Structure formats: C-alpha cells, structure tokens
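Can anyone check this?
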Amino acid sequence: MTVTVDHNAATSVLMRSLERVKTSPVDTCAISEQIDTVLGGSGCLTYQYVLLTALAARAANPSVDMLSLQVEDQSVGAYAPRTLCSNVVYPFQLKFLDNVLDGSNNDPLVNKPARYLRLDVSNAARGDGRRALNALCQGLPLVTTPEMIQECLDYMMTRLHLLADFKRQGRESAIQSVTHAAVTDVHSFLNDLLNQGFGGGALVLAATVLYRVQYPEASGFKVVPHPVNQSGASSRQLSDMDLTANGVPILGTELKDKVFTADDVRRAADTSLAGGLHSLIFIAGRNSGYTTQPPTYFNDLRATYLAKDMYIGLIGIDGFLDFVLANHLNMDSPAVLQSAIGVIDEISGSAEMQMWVYGRLDSLKNASLTAVATA
C-alpha cells in the first residue's frame, strides 16, 4: 500500500531539526554507527540522500517504510522518496546547509543505488557503497518510535550542520589566504593537487581552473565541467568538459586519469560528433600511463575521425599546465585560486578533496603575510 508524504510537513520537519541542533546538538542515537558509516563513505552520496530522505519522510508520516525506494514497492508503507528528495531534501541542504551534500544534480535519487524497489543487501554495491547499503538495511528497521526517529534525524542533522560550518569556515579562510598569491603559487597548488588524484577529481578540478584562464567568460566563453565519475549525467553533455563560445559548443574535452583504450576514445568521439562537435581533446592525467607520445591506436583513430571531419587530440596535463601559465603570466592569481573552491561544488568533488583544497590554500597565508611585510 502506497502512502503519501506531505512535502510541506517534511520541510517543517527538517527546519525544526536544524533549529534544534543549532542550540542542542545530538551526539548519539540508536543508529549513530550506521549513520556515521553512510556519511563517512567515499562515493556514498546517493545513500546519504536516501538516509536523510527516509528519516524526514518517516518523521512527517509514521506509516512510511524507510527501506522503500519506489512507489511500486509492494511493502506496506511504500512511498515516493525520489520526488521528496528532489523537491524538499535537495533544496533544503542546498539553501540551509551550504550544499553540504555536494549536490550538482537536483534529482539525487535518479542514480543507480536508488533505482531498486527497496533497500536490500542483495542490491548491487561495492566498497564503501556496500558498507553504506548494509548499514542502512541493518539500522533503519531498528528505528521504530517517533522519539527514535527525531533523535536519529537530529543526530544526522548535527553531523551535517557541523560539517557545513567547517566547510564554510574553511572556504572563507582559504579565500582570505590567497590574497597576495602569484603565478608560482598557482603552479605549486595545481601541481600538488594533481599528485593527490582523488579518483580522477584532481584532474577535473585542475583542468577546469586552467580552461577558465585560457578561455575567460569575459570573452564569451563558457567552460562546463561535469560531475566526477558521472559521464553522460546530462543529456546536453558532449564530453567530460564542454566549451562553448557565445553559446555555441566548440570543443569537447575528455579527462582521463587512468589508462584508456581505443574503445574509450571511440565512444567519446562518437558521442561528441553526434552532438555536433568537430574538435575533441583528451587530457591525460598522471595516472593514465601517457608520457609524451600518443599510443599507436590513437594515431590510427585520429586519421579515422579526420575522415569524418573531426579532429581528436591528446595532451598530458603537465604540458597543458605549462602552456596555460606561460601564456598568462599576468593572470589574477588570487582569483584563479579562489575559483578552484567554486569548481569543487560544480563537479561534486568529495569532502576529502574539499578539505585538502581548503587546507592547501590556507597554507599560502604565511607566504602572503611575508609578501606583504617585505613589499
């Protein structure tokens, strides 16, 4: 039997919880261990939205089955979590929690982990995702009374509120720390960033920052990076990072921080070509195995796609880094470094990446103070 959840009631539930924890944070609950597992896992964003949505739904309507993911679920208490998440939970965290769940997609439960009929240990998952799924399946059935629901929601809200404050303070400190940065600081930051990897996120972040230096918005360009490891997330996406000039797509960019094959190149080229692009560049990260010469298959494919009126190129990220900085010695270095903070949200960068970036930028503070003292 399907039950409904009043969206206004769910919004009120979330707001009241946030107001409570601002003055009375909750440091434990019946399933605190499971909530910590879900919040602390890498690549667990969908499960984090599932958890917050389930708690808000159950608090708004005690008949809700928190393990349900679809109205087609045959359980008593099945509801529509995807709609509730998109219309209530996502905008709530965006507006009141400083986008603490790093959502670039306003429909978070469209992703595969939430496409099953219900949460079940038989659902496909691996790594931290498997641990998060198991934690939800184990923990949510233990929360049975309205008092427990409120306590668990307040515990999760406390964690999110503290993380949002930490993120906000870290961002503000980082912004202030780069006030007197120079182009050498930009190179040092991006070089160190690329050494971190972050599951390919470092390459996406570095490339986006460099593209926006090379192709400034003031000149009519728009650089559109897409969420890390969510290829094709948008029907308008032509590549990992799309470049337009005065609204017209002119260049697609594939960002590869792992070894890639001829089939990878063909798929990307075909997608971009079908979208109307005739230029596609592959930027190879430090973990891609690329040195300075394209593999034989790439040269063969270049010839194949030239016959289709499309050019595909390949460059290493370090060569691109040197090219851009050498051509923009007079760039606004503080603004370039500050832009990295905004890009993290655009690409749904991990909390680990956020903390590293904030800390690394904050480390420029002493250098800035020295520069001011000796000026």
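Reply from J.R.: I decoded it. The beta strands are 221-225, 241-245, 248-256, 279-284, 311-316.
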